[in-house]
Specification:
Length: 130
Amino acid sequence: MIRYQVRPDTAEALVTFTLQDVDPVHRTVAVVGDFNDWDPTAHVMDADGADRLRTATMSVPVGHRYAFRYLTDDGTWLDDDDPHDRHDNGMGGQNCVLDLCAEGDGSDAPVPGLDEPTASMAPGDGVPPG
């Protein structure tokens, strides 16, 4: 689940990613995407063991669409239950999309890294290796 609040004074949005019902076997889960160069150490999600929830909050520039997924400590890729969109990654899978474009301001623009796969993308998972 994605929730965000646009902060017009900074042209950024405060975005909270929530992943529900995470198997406790996953000690760490990170939200990775275009906004952090797919770096699994940049936004490790906080765990709430009682509810099996993971959350991460970050500031992200508005006016863009960002491909993202969740990555566990054992290399398992997880998807958001309700992303703004999904896009084929050109590698046989899909990435979730966070859309922070204003209506009529690029919301139909291609998502970087999804429409044309790059050599850094791992086959089958559709995101750069971490």
